[in-house]
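Deliverable D4.2, example record:
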Amino acid sequence: MSGPKFDEDALEGVYGEALAEEKAGRFDAAAKAYRACLEIDPDDHVGARLRLAALGLGETPETAGDAYVATLFDQQAEMFEDILVRQLGYGVPALIGEALTRLGFHHFERALDLGCGTGLVGLALDGRADTMMGVDLSENMVEIAFDSGAYDHLYIGEALGFLGDFEEDEPFDLIAAADVLPYFGELSPLLEAVFARLAPGGVFVASTETFATDGAGGSDGPGAPGEPGRPEGGAQRHAGRAGGADFAVGRDHRFHHGEDYVRKAFEAAGLEVLQAEPIIVRMQEGRPAPGHLFVARRSL
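Output generated by the structure prediction step:
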């Protein structure tokens, strides 16, 4: 396996400079350094594009980027569950199981855990699928998911690419995506790919993160004017094909989606929304991070 095709030491130095400038409130200088990161590493392993967008000083990317997501979760894999579940109170996998039960979906023939991470959704749905499959971009995460014993088959790959390229034709009657949509801006390509892989009447369940004004709590999309740690006005909400103020990169460098936008995107993809429940995704900087749990069904 070949090593990185960029100067890692140079990237580390410039990225450290960018973080320091941002922390000090020198946002133009920070943006200059983040752009220098992209010159060193166009694949963007450090997420410079997201940080520029969060500052309101760069275009909003379509996704978080494969290199950034894989690097982030490969680094976090060993401590992922301790930080996310025990320290930040992340409970989306359990909420998925409860929502499916409440709506009368008790058992599935073929289930796909999209962005399976360390296997939390697989464990939450243990025994409810004849065949449970998982895919994640992070090899280190997949290794931990394998050890969980919750999956019949596991794959390493990016969510959208996997849905498009997976060689098996047999559809799924459940696709779950916990903590996946916050790494996509425009959702239509992903939702269309989900639709294509679902059996008629199949179920798609996914969590989103939303703007603070769209739900309870303190995670955000655009920053409030004068908010510490970002320039006046913060990131801008962007209009997607569904129209309106749709999504933005929040100060946590994840995509936050408006509920109306997500509903319209689901419906446009042929997914009938059965539930859009406001949830607390986790704690973020000591405050609840608001989101929604969507349960949808492919049209017959």
